[in-house]
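Example with several molecule types.
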Amino acid sequence: MGKLAGKKLLLLGERDGVPGPAMEACLKDSGAEIIFSATECFV
Amino acid sequence: MSTKVGIKSYSYCLNHAPETGSHYGGTPYEAYHSGKEQEYLDALPKHIQSYDHALHYAPNQTYIGGISYEEFEALPSGWVNNPLPDEKSKRYGKFGELMPEDEFLGLISACDEFELVWLEKNFAENVSKKLAEDPVITEAIVKRVLRPKNMHELSEIETEVKERAGLYLYNEGKIVGCIRSGHPTDDCLTAHVLMENLAGKASGVLALLHLMKNSGMNPNDLDFVIECSEEGAGDVGQRAGGNFAKAIAEVAGCVNASGCDVRGFCAGPVNAMINAAAQVASGARKNVAVVAGGSIPKLYMNSRDHVKKNLLALEDCVGSFAVLIVPDDGTMPVMRLDVLGKHTVGAGGAPQAVTSALTFEPLQSAGLTFTDVDRYAPELQNHEITEPAGAGNVPLANIKMIAALAVMKKAIEKPAMMDFIKKHGTIGFAHTQGHIPAGVPFIGHACEMINEGKIKRAMIIGKGSLFLARLTNLADGASFLIEAPEPVKTESTLSKEEIKAMLLETLSEVAGRLS
Amino acid sequence: MQNQQRVKDAGEKYGTDCIVILGSSDPEGAEIYAETVTAGDPTYAGPLAGVSLELPVYHIFDPVIRAECDPAAWEEQISMMEMVLEPDALAEAVKGMREQYSKNVIE
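Resulting structure tokens for the full complex:
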């Protein structure tokens, strides 16, 4: 089991950085539950 | 059907609006209503930039065409502390103007059809005189500022605000008018919403008037308007029913035009350009003006951080732009319809997928590569505004994405990334987006550089944060190329005499064979 | 910050079993975010003003988090941004706040 097993993840992405859905795709099989994933835009 | 259209003309304007912004910009307005940030609200007025300072601020002059893009690029960084010389800091630039706030309030009043704007009588008279000096403001518009229904005593204005949910308008710290509520219960017609929409309309009108002047077109000859701001006009039944385009065309005197709105957050203008070009290329319209006004809520969006760091709060201008699309005649910069970037639903949100869909894929389909585009304009927000707010240098990050993708696609070597960024990138000079988003502020400069033979090809990109509306997690994006014109191939035409001679020759040949 | 209320709700429900992972583009922005979900909103503007959730917070580029990511998905979704952004500076900026304010961190 990975270090994230059993954890709850809050993914706060940024449009001009790493967006939420991209992080979600990378962490969906990490053993953690993704509680929410969001993307922000500062401009 | 042609796959190219001509870009005949363009205009870019700014409306300085610091007092409107410090009261009704989204961040100050929210702070005022939360009641939790008095310190910030008290400090904000001390961080406001004067009109004269705004005129000397290099990014503003670049936006209105007061200086060329190359001049801007050559300037040392730290524009706020390096004002331009007076001779390069005029109100009117090659593309448009930077209008002071009092005249903007007058123009907003001129754009009102429903007695929603009341200006104090003396103020209205004074600004009407100032507006009359503006070369694009028509006599009809000046007269509209002086309509008795829009001019009131201060006491009437105070009553309207206090008793019927109006909102004050300010100039030089004084109350000079109000926006009235449009309906007692409809949330889509509050004074705040109407102020936003009327300001969007008025700034769009200014851009369209400058477009008519820059193109030399008689407003009567304009066929269609596509408006692509990020505002929503409607009522409780349809909160963004529309339509800004026709409302703007009406005030600008374009009596033979009709119009519609295209939306998509910051991808809106690029989609509107494609829409307009397709209509002209197909022959559906003789010409189309793409127009957008700006947004009051975006004013002072990052000012909390500017105040905290004791900097000037620079987000004080409502921006607008307009572009005139006509059939390609081989003399104007052209927009290509056969090479369009499209961010599909299935492409997902990963930056590399988005960048690929908007740059690599359309270029590849046209047999081009990354280095064939002289300049990319993905985002043009002024980094002096965004960096102090922890939002980084957005144009640079986006050019870097294109450079990094070029490396991944083996179009350039990794050590050449910085060179690529410098040579093919663009530096931001626009106010934070929402007013004048993504790559569209560069259309004017790209056309100028093409006309001067300095570049052959530019790519304009727009990316829209659709997820902000909470309907989808997707973003959107679109892109197109602007290129130098090629002489239009005309089919050789034969005169009647030539045809007659050819026929006679053929007939005599036939007759010869028969005999 | 548009998502403070959602972070607050999750933090109050699950405590420091919640891990916040940031995708910010700018080290300074990442630092402010990290401070917000640990010590509380430094701007005092949002729902986390004066609320110390002490959540463990990481940037997606932190080696600890990166090691837990699916390599194929990373390649497809994030690898290009490693060339664009400053991964080390971003991870460090968040680490500074985590070391000061976070509880229940993973190593």
